[in-house]
Amino acid sequence: MEKDLIIPTHVGIIVDGNGRWAQQRGLSRSAGHREGFTRLKNICIYAQESGVKYLSLYVFSTENFKRAKLEVDFLMNLFVSMFHTEFQEIMDRGAKIVFSGRREPLPKEVLEAMDEMAEKSKNNTGTVLNFCINYGGQTEILDMTKKIAQEVLEGKLTIDDITLDTLHDHLYQDLPPLDFVIRTSGELRLSNFMLYQASYAEFYFPKTYFPDFTEHDFDAAIVEFNKRNRRFGGNAS
Ligand code: IPE
Ligand code: IPE
Ligand code: MG
Questions:
Q1: For labelling alongside 23, which of 134, 144, 161, 170 has CA 20 to 30 A away?
Q2: Architecture of domain 10-137+177-227
Q3: Does the beta carbon of 211 sit less than 6 angstroms from any atom of ligand 1?
Q4: What single string gives the DSSP state of each residue in 11-35?
Q5: Mind listing the pLDDT tens digit for each residue in 172-215?
Q6: Which of 42, 64, 77, 124 is an active site residue?
Q7: Closest residue by Cα to residue 95 from 68, 67, 122
Q8: Å from CA of 64 to ligand 3 middle
């Protein structure tokens, strides 16, 4: 990483292109996912070393349950095995692991592995790694709305008490807004990723499929972020 670059506080990565990467090589989609997740582990370590404080990783959307059962099952097993092996090293390097998404209908083994990682790393003070699994931005807003409505019904909150801070406090995780979202594979869309948190994020869409996304590509992304002029609705400087 070049010196004197501003490192975005909260980076989101939409991990995409595993399937096409495999297809290009005549391999199964599963092989693409395996390769993609090994790469992801290395990118997490690199982002951690580069000083990224919050890293949100979109690895399975609520809509991804529409895929063939074979692929969904493979991904679920891959999450469990990665959590038990590769991602232990990341925790050992001080990362705190949190999860965003609905628990239902994730398999028990996945939930157990997630709970174990969250519990084991809860006092870690390094980079926060937020895994978005069975995550949808719309569902997060729906779940937030229901929690707030319930508190109003129970008399814990009045309508006038509801502020933007209240909304923030009822999201899945307590994270700062996204500064920078990277989506690999060339698709130019959010696909339901952190809709609320991305309001003033900068976006970057490299064409690279995720299994080919290297530390060098991550550096190039940060260089691109440094070229952006963020205004947050104010005047141009
Ligand atoms: C992203 O790769 C990984 C997940 C959604 C879990 P894809 O599986 O979407 O790969 P493409 O988009 O089909 O190439
Ligand atoms: C978005 O990728 C979800 C994740 C990367 C986890 P998809 O591959 O599912 O998105 P679409 O279907 O191309 O929009
Ligand atoms: Mg995709």
A1: 134
A2: 3-Layer(aba) Sandwich (3.40)
A3: no
A4: EEEE---HHHHHHHTT--HHHHHHH
A5: 999 999 999 999 999 999 999 999 999 999 999 999 999 999 99
A6: 64
A7: 122
A8: 9
